Amino acid sequence: MNTHPILAEALRGGIVESFHRGALAVVDADGRVHTALGDIERPVFPRSAVKVLQALPLVASGAADRWQLSDEELALACASHGGEPRHAATAASMLAKAGVDVAALECGTHWPTNDAAIKGLAAGGESPSALHNNCSGKHAGFVCLGCLMAEGRDRRDFLRGYVRPEHPVMREVTAALQATTGFDLSRTAVGTDGCSIPTYAIPLRHLAHAFAKVGSGVGLSAGHARAAKRLRAAAARSPFMVAGSGRLDTRLMQRLGERVFCKVGAEGVYCAALPELGLGLAIKIDDGNNARACEVVLAATVERLLPLVDDDRAFVHAMSDLTLSNWNGIEVGRLRAAEQLRRRADTPTGAST
Amino acid sequence: MNTHPILAEALRGGIVESFHRGALAVVDADGRVHTALGDIERPVFPRSAVKVLQALPLVASGAADRWQLSDEELALACASHGGEPRHAATAASMLAKAGVDVAALECGTHWPTNDAAIKGLAAGGESPSALHNNCSGKHAGFVCLGCLMAEGRDRRDFLRGYVRPEHPVMREVTAALQATTGFDLSRTAVGTDGCSIPTYAIPLRHLAHAFAKVGSGVGLSAGHARAAKRLRAAAARSPFMVAGSGRLDTRLMQRLGERVFCKVGAEGVYCAALPELGLGLAIKIDDGNNARACEVVLAATVERLLPLVDDDRAFVHAMSDLTLSNWNGIEVGRLRAAEQLRRRADTPTGAST
Q1: Do A123 and B125 touch (CB under 8 A)?
Q2: Counting Cβ atoms within 10 Å, is residue B289 exposed (0-12), middle (13-18) or buried (19+)?
Q3: Pairing of strands A279-285, A269-274
């Protein structure tokens, strides 16, 4: 395993208490590498960071139009949401439009990741359903696609097992991933994701390239290009649906709109598109830390790459350099992107692939 | 920053998805290094892993006898508990015995870390108090010590600000840390812990040495040796109080009794004593991961060092090599101590300090 550079660090008492190593790729739509930190050729599981790629067939197939999905619903199809009431209701609405219900979902059930949503359910004596699964929107999107593909057949029969790699729905989804990343998924490691669909190991360079394509439309089929544009617009109009209260993806897209499309994935992965620069980026934190390492690295990279007015720069900077306080509100340390990243993220390597 | 060896890894789809680097020291009571992986001389914040050292004055001062603290209460004084109802009630009981109440606690308030406890409070329309803070037992111990020291004076006046380094209570606590670790705390980095008391940066070698002393009594003052023995016995009799439902510290001590005393600390720290071997150990995961990395490393080290009957070995092994399942109960991967650790933990380096 290569030793990757330190990308984020947590300070306490004036010293580095903990730190996170990882790799970062920034690539343009032609596949040129703008920035490479660490090994960007090692295949990594992108997990939920590629939901927008997996949602392309939902739009490109005509299913989104057929079921008249709203911006909120399309944004939820790209989401790892907190299971807040609006998220669960929106997933239910997608299913209803396609003529099915929560029973069609094969993502499994877990308690919401949003604290207030947990307490809200508990206070009402309720238990979560598959609608609260952070992937329920993505799965509702798969089901909506499946309901279009099933026409003329029994929907429930057709949908059963849609999470499996060989199911016609998942084949469409995998084909979109293959087409956008340009990486041979038939010859790479395949894992099972938390929500039971396959996750394919893909190098950061290819993931960043795919997001550069999603941001620019360059290098995509006409159908995928239109779909990517529509999904990005939907996320920019309904950023709450992509993540939820207090979450970085939501806050960043609320602030910057279509200037950034970003998406976290489990185990320390982030992918993002910066359309006006024609760049895509992909991050993997070695240790899989999501809540802090990945976020400050993403924010620091956006801050360095995107031309921002002062207010916006301060807003983004505050996400890459945070004061840590304890339970009494006493300042105890800082969490920040590493010096090496801050220094190098704005220095194109110029390397070509 | 030195590059540390990989100590734990998470696998998915047959490949390593994420991994954790760190350092590990195993030291005997005379200070001889039995095992050293990574840099064991770099000072790290031990956080809550040293609560047993910080609880020594509670017993050595006579406060534990004066307030007739039970095994459960002494175990809670060494705990990072889940805020379950019995934990909160036991902290309240300690305070009541010393003639004060929750208002004396200066640890701050947070929601329990135990999921069921969160839902239980929410279902009852309740909010947490400082009794639910994972450090409430340690703080109740400080308060019990303070109530003894305050005799003849107004308790509330005396106790105020007991979390500060210069307060007589905290001076006693720091003196115990200094005496047991043998590291000059006046010349190292000092941070503020989550519960507002100071945390001092101490090398793993010194932390492991302190735990070897705690396990054997060798190298401790007579008062500290008696106190350490009593606290270890209390934890072995009431392991639920040291952590809580499903937690590793609780499960390991329930199973092995006084054969191991172990304690997790925030930001990827573990300290443990193996009394029958006269060894102490200390772990720091570079990235601060607690929930998984630290635990499998601790379990793998205990498994390698301690002579165990087959059933116990299987029990401990299952903590160092876990199957990971997703929300549908499908096996998706494994979490395990790294090969390098499994291979080297049983090979004494023989290095002397």
Answers
A1: yes
A2: buried
A3: antiparallel
For residues A206 and A218, what is the distance between their CA atoms, to the nearest angstrom?
14
In terms of CA atoms, which chain B residue is nearest residue A189?
B13
> Quick check: A119 and B115 CB within 8 A?
no
For B122, the closest of A15, A122, A327 (CB atoms) is A122
In a 3-state reduction of DSSP, which class is residue A238? coil
What is the pairing mode between strands B261-265 and B269-274? antiparallel
* Cα A234–Cα A236–Cα A239 angle in degrees, nearest 5: 95
**B140-176 pLDDT, tens digit each:** 999 999 999 998 899 999 999 999 999 999 999 999 9
Contact residues for A54 (Cβ-Cβ < 8 A; gap 6+): A138, A141, A173, A176, A177
Token pair of B42 as six digits? 């770099």
Nearest to A326 among B18, B21, B108 (CB): B108
pLDDT at B239: 98
Amino acid at A324: L
**pLDDT score of A217 more than 60:** yes
pLDDT above 60 for B56: yes
> Taking every pair of C-alpha atoms in chain A, what is the biggest distance, in angstroms?
67
Query: Hey, what are A35's tokens?
Result: 């920035």
Q: In angstroms, rounded to a whole number, what is the distance separating the alpha carbons of residues B79 and B88?
A: 12
Name chain A contacts of B197, Cβ cutoff 8 Å: none
Q: Which helix (H) or strand (E) holds B268?
A: none
Rounded to whole angstroms, the Cα distance separating A209 from A214 reads: 9
Whose CA is closest to B6, among B347, B342, B353, B277?
A: B342
Q: Which residue(s) pair with A170 in the sheet?
A: none
Count Cβ atoms below 10 Å from residue B176 Cβ, excluding itself. Answer: 26
Helices B204-216 and B222-237: crossing angle, nearest 10°? Answer: 80
CA distance A302 to B4: 30
What ipTM is given for this predicted complex? Answer: 0.94
User: How far is A225 from chain B, CA to nearest CA, in Å?
Assistant: 31
Give pTM, 2 decimals.
0.95
CB count within 10 Å of CB A71 equals 16
Q: Which residue of B has its CA nearest to A332?
A: B192
Any alpha helices (H) in chain B, and if so which ranges? Answer: 51-54, 56-60, 63-66, 71-77, 85-97, 115-123, 136-149, 155-159, 168-181, 204-216, 222-237, 239-242, 248-256, 295-305, 310-320, 339-344
Euclidean distance between CA atoms B171 and B281, whole angstroms: 25
Coil vs helix vs strand at B301: helix
Question: Could you tell me the sign of the dihedral formed by the alpha carbons of B224, B226, B229, B233, in that order?
Answer: negative
pLDDT of residue B340: 73
**So what's the pLDDT on residue A292?**
85
Q: What token pair was written down for B351?
A: 């290095």
Amino acid (one-letter) located at B323: T
pLDDT > 70 in chain A, percent? 97
Count of positions (residues) in chain A: 353
What are the helix and strand counts (H, E) for chain B? 16, 12
Give helix B295-305 / helix B310-320 axis angle, nearest 10°. 150
